[in-house]
Amino acid sequence: MNPLDTLIELSNQMELEHAEESRNFNPPASDSNADKPACFSPKVPSEFTEKEKRAAFVHPAQLPNGKKTVLLKTLLSSACERDCYYCPFRAGRDFRRATFKPDEFAGLFSKMNQSGMAQGVFLSSGIAGGGIRTMDKLLDTAEILRKRRNFRGYLHLKIMPGAQKAQVYRAMQLADRLSVNLEAPNTERLAKLAPHKIFIEELLQPLKWVEEIRNSEPADKFWNGKYPSSVTQFVAGGSDESDLELLTTTHWLMKKVRLARAYFSAFHPIRDTPLENKPAVNPMREHRLYQASFLLRDYGFDLEDLPFTADENLPLHNDPKLAWAQQNLTERPVEINQAERRELLRVPGIGPKHADTILQARRTMKFRDLTALRKMGIIVARVAPFVLLDGRRAENQLALF
Ligand code: SF4
């Protein structure tokens, strides 16, 4: 197989990995214009063939600093000795496997990078010969990219289950972001998805090591003089877990190991796996989980603030921030001229940047109607039912807008 065909083989299921995808970077819908994913198209150089252009290995992405980019997402190998129930790469499943040698992949990626086809890379792998050996291959690849190929762009490296602390340390010296997919929120749920993964020792431990290392070593020892961020991904609905379980673990990780964010991939069945007859999960569920996780991370919400239903899930039909406001602010609106930042952040239509802009503006002015809010780019129809402006209900002015 030539390297490009190998890449096509290895990348054709990478939509299962959500990391850095632009569609997942929406703020709560109540703070933006639409309750649906946003997207943009990558630029693929004209000299690439139709086959190359169609290949699914480059993905529009948004980096942690907000910059848009095009990311190559691939595995180093689709051979795997584990048998996770949901996974297309599980051992024994009949399909054509492919593997890159570290220098082979680094050479191909360098060409793609130089041509402008891919600006960054997300690199994972199936496990062959154990997690430690597989992690070594990922590290070798990263090392060649950084040292021999002089690649200085964005690199997201997957940490293999069972990797050692010294390997995590080395990965932090090479990558901008590290991830360990927990897949499920706890040991019991993981057993329903991945019988040979060990939740605490194999999956949670590397995330704890990243944080331990960040707390004990200066940033200049790591790639680009910065600590890499850490993220995880869950298979939402794959183990019949509730949203409360997923968000409890997410919140714990954000507080205890400074997880930058969690990704949620709605379960959908893969043919010829033990879960092939399990119904697909509504993609709206992952969207609500993203919104709720942003409320926990950026908006000062606690788990108990989220509008869980009796079955401990989020309502699918309503944005969680809007649902909270409808229950709590309709009768007790927030006075824009006096509210603290954390109170402003509870108002649908007001995100962290808007809250800061309002606080700044309040030093020199008083909000008496919706005009000034609208000039700040705030969707006043969202805000109006939940705020007072100089003691008066803002929603009474909506007809003017
Ligand atoms: S270890 Fe990873 S690649 Fe292997 S079966 Fe499990 S999820 Fe799939």
Provide a compact summary of the structure.
With 401 residues, the protein is α/β, with parallel strands linked by helices.
What would you say this structure looks like, in words?
The protein is α/β, with parallel strands linked by helices and 401 residues long. The protein folds into two domains: 3-305, Aldolase class I (TIM Barrel, Alpha-Beta Barrel); 329-400. The protein has helices spanning 3-11, 50-54, 102-115, 131-148, 165-174, 187-191, 199-216, 243-256, 283-298, 320-328, 341-344, 352-362, 371-375, 380-383; strands spanning 58-62, 68-75, 120-124, 155-158, 177-179, 229-236, 261-266, 334-335, 387-389, 392-393. The longest helix has 18 residues, at 131-148. Mean pLDDT is 90; it is low at 33-46.
Outline the secondary-structure elements.
Blueprint: H1 3-11, H2 50-54, E1 58-62, E2 68-75, H3 102-115, E3 120-124, H4 131-148, E4 155-158, H5 165-174, E5 177-179, H6 187-191, H7 199-216, E6 229-236, H8 243-256, E7 261-266, H9 283-298, H10 320-328, E8 334-335, H11 341-344, H12 352-362, H13 371-375, H14 380-383, E9 387-389, E10 392-393
Parallel strand pairs: 2-3, 3-4, 4-5, 5-6, 6-7, 8-9
Antiparallel strand pairs: 1-2, 9-10
Helix pairs in contact: 3-4, 4-5, 5-7, 8-9
Iron/sulfur cluster is lined by residues 80, 82, 84, 87, 89-90, 126-127, 194.
CATH topology tier name of the largest domain: TIM Barrel
Helicity, in percent? Answer: 25-40%
CATH class of the largest domain: Alpha Beta
Radius of gyration: 23 Å
What is the architecture of the largest domain at the second tier of CATH? Alpha-Beta Barrel
Q: Helix segment count?
A: 14
Overall geometry comes to globular
Question: Structural class, from secondary structure content?
Answer: alpha/beta
Distinct ligands, ions and cofactors found in the model: iron/sulfur cluster
Please give the largest β-sheet: 7 strands, mixed
| Helix-strand topology string | HHEEHEHEHEHHEHEHHEHHHHEE
End-to-end separation: 62 Å
Number of beta-strand segments: 10
CATH superfamily of the largest domain: Aldolase class I
Strand order of the largest sheet: 1-2-3-4-5-6-7
Domain module tally: 2
List low-pLDDT spans. 33-46
Strand content: 5-15%
Mean pLDDT: 90
